[in-house]
Amino acid sequence: MGGSARNPGVLRGDQASDQSAYQRLSRRMLDISGDRGVLKDVIREGAGELVTPDASVLVKYSGYLEHMDKPFDSNCFRKTPRLMKLGEDITLWGMELGLLSMRRGELARFLFKPTYAYGTMGCPPLIPPNTTVLFEIELLDFLDSAESDKFCALSAALLLLHRRSAPPREQHLVAAAKLLVLLNLSLTYLKLERPTTALRYGEQALILDQKNAKALFRCGQACLLMTEYQKARDFLVRAQKEQPFNHDINNELKKLASSYKDYTDKEKEMCHRMFAPDDNGSTVGET
């Protein structure tokens, strides 16, 4: 997120002699708590719906004390942040309120007064008593309550199924249950617009059943979102072979054909522009 460089630079830009850096910064921030206990400054706008109260969120964050250049707390070193549920996994009241004001893709800076952060006691030895803290938060994605509960249940079920060693006569039952979970996880990640992960779960499902039409369809959808048109076609044609009259599969093939046509048209237009003669009669790109 670049917070360790941005935070001190912004604060030094305000020249006021009788106020602290955070007090100067707070003058141009939006009050989202109603008592100026949580203040917000949007760095990059997000899109879509606001975070719902019972959601689970994927966020990157860094927390700063007023006279520190480096964050006292951050999860930006993680390659993939863990999913956190509001009301359970997030301990700062200010962060909860801040997240409820955010949309997917948004990056914002917040000031949390002690009441909304670490209180009158602070968090020794790192956080002094009665300390206002600054957090930069990037909302990568979120799931609403129903979706997050389903996601967590699916993830837990898959973990249990991986760990279970069933006797030979029950292995087909475990495989069937695992296949269903993998298909549902693939669908969930498609809804989250994370096609790479959706494809991975779809391909795991195909290891269990290489002719499964739903798994082939999910993989085709994922590849289409990734604009890997040939792979998408291969998966969807295989799915259609298993279920020739499936309405969803046939519609996805039509969508693929349309998307591929748009892609090739743009490629042709780009080539035409590259090699079209300019006003001097020479071709663009000629030396």
Quaternary structure annotation: single chain
End-to-end Cα distance: 41 Å
Number of strands: 9
What is the ordering of alpha helices and beta strands? HHEEEEEEHEEEHHHHHH
Broad shape: flat
Q: Number of helical runs? A: 9
Q: Main sheet, how many strands, which sense, barrel?
A: 7 strands, antiparallel
* Low-pLDDT stretches: 2-6
Assign the structural class, choosing from mainly alpha, mainly beta, alpha/beta, alpha+beta, or little secondary structure.
alpha+beta
Mean pLDDT: 83
Portion in helices: 40-55%
Strand content: 15-25%
Radius of gyration: 26 Å
SSE topology:
Blueprint: H1 3-12, H2 21-26, E1 30-31, E2 38-44, E3 47-50, E4 56-64, E5 73-74, E6 84-85, H3 93-100, E7 103-104, E8 107-112, E9 133-143, H4 145-163, H5 171-191, H6 195-208, H7 213-225, H8 229-242, H9 247-275
Antiparallel strand pairs: 1-2, 2-8, 3-7, 4-5, 4-6, 4-9, 8-9
Helix pairs in contact: 4-5, 5-6, 5-7, 6-7, 7-8, 7-9, 8-9
